[in-house]
Specification:
- This protein is α/β, with parallel strands linked by helices.
- It has one domain: TIM Barrel, CATH 3.20.20.
- The chain has ten helices and eight strands.
- Strands 1-2-3-4-5-6-7-8 form an eight-stranded parallel beta barrel, surrounded by four helices.
- The protein is globular.
Amino acid sequence: MVKIPISLEFFPPKTPEGVAKLAAARAELYALEPEFCSVTYGAGGSTQNGTLAAVQAILGEGRSGAPHITCIGASRATVGGLLDTYRAAGITRLVALRGDLPSGAGSFGEFRYASELIEQIRQHSGSHFRIEVAAYPETHPQARSPEADLKAFAAKVAAGADAAITQMFFNADAYFRFVDEVRALGISVPIVPGIMPITNSSGLMRFADNCGCEIPRWMRLRLQSYGDDVKSIRAFGLDVMTALCERLISEGVPGLHFYTMNQAGPTVELCRRLEHRVA
């Protein structure tokens, strides 16, 4: 049986306690042998130092680390400086995103689209960085239309993206339809599903609603029925996400990218269920 690679996403901790907890979570998650670990980047680069510190810790632990880099509110000079910093730190992989404006900011800066950021990375650093970008199987919530969203994705690939990681989703058909539509445009880059282990109900629903991810009605009702019963929510979530991942793997996805939320347990348990399918 062919095994597929996995990757992991973390967010930069804000306190010494958070740093220690993340280090412990990483140590446990490394048993899964991830291909790389990405670290998120706050709106307008607000977590820049924390992102770099977390990636440097990952590199120091002998793993591949990929910082997120965003462009909204940034200048070409600041992006160039950040790329120089990342290159000097030994980083060879990036997750390039448009990002969001910080609260209260009034200017987009010199970039409006992720494709412009990717062009800048390639102009500045050539092929030094492997670039991952975002994909939205259920359409970006700010896109004018599904067709416009597909064109935006195609523009990112044309600008130099090497692969894509999707927003979380719970509808496998949406992912496969998106891939089919992308392939029909002649785009062949890997499109890796983003997987969010289910650990709570209200937080998941709030996040899904904000990012345009559909939670199927049957799932939403079941989660709501558990109220504050965390044990039942996690058991149900584990069953649901195992079934989703098994279908994705059986139909040939190139990998799985886990949104860990800086916790080891949910991702480790899910991968344990899939132990003969992931590596």
